Amino acid sequence: KMSYGSIDGSGFGSRNPFGGPSRQGYQPLATQIDPSELQELFQETSANVFRINSNVTSLERSLRSLGTSNDTQELQDGLHATQQETNKTITTSTKAIKQLSEIVRGSSRVCQERLQLDRLKNQLSDAIQRYGAVQK
Fold first, then answer.
1. I need a labelling partner for 20 at 20 to 30 A (CA). Which of 27, 39, 76, 95 fits?
2. Does the pLDDT value for residue 10 go beyond 50?
């Protein structure tokens, strides 16, 4: 399996000790990327967007219980855990979108992937806005 910088952020965009971005394992040329791996990255990111939206729905539900008789330590711990997971998922997804953008920009198989990327960007952006509204 070829690596294009692990999606958890340890590769793409992370800083090396010498101050520059570290890019080991990241293949900037689309021709070096297996189309099935590209689709895998799209699918993973799409699943992350779905997870963010699910978390937002769950947070909205939990927030309605705050200050009521259902307000427990367990509820508050759950809220906190969901927020942390959502923050991490947003970070991962944002990095993946940047990666996908670079790959698609250098790609010859442009049209379908550009559309796929634009749709994914919009979905992520909407999910982050929803999350931001719940945070307030």
1. 39
2. no
